[in-house]
Design brief:
Rossmann fold; 3-stranded mixed sheet; 3 helices
């Protein structure tokens, strides 16, 4: 897909669900930033996200921000739990 996006062979990338497009929220945001730099829009059919419109871009960035927030919160929780774990007795 990126092989068609980078030389601008396409104007819009359409997918059914966001989780089918990228491995993680960070990867998704990086990919969409690259799309924006190349002038390529993203349409997600399942979630009614269409970056060709201002409201679609807003919705995408809000969802991406929430995903980033959740990812950082999970990481912080894991670190706290790891720091409070007791070492095993042998």
């Amino acid at each position: 897909m990126l092989a068609a996006v980078r030389p601008r062979k396409v104007d819009v990338v359409a997918c059914v669900k966001l989780d089918r497009l990228a491995r993680s929220g960070h990867h998704l945001v990086a990919m969409v930033r690259e799309f924006e730099a190349l002038g390529v829009d993203l349409v997600v059919l399942d979630q009614a996200i269409d970056t060709t419109t201002p409201s679609g871009r807003l919705l995408f960035h809000v969802l991406a921000s929430v995903a980033e927030f959740r990812r950082r919160r999970r990481r912080r929780t894991r670190r706290r739990r790891a720091s409070t774990c007791r070492p095993r007795r042998q």
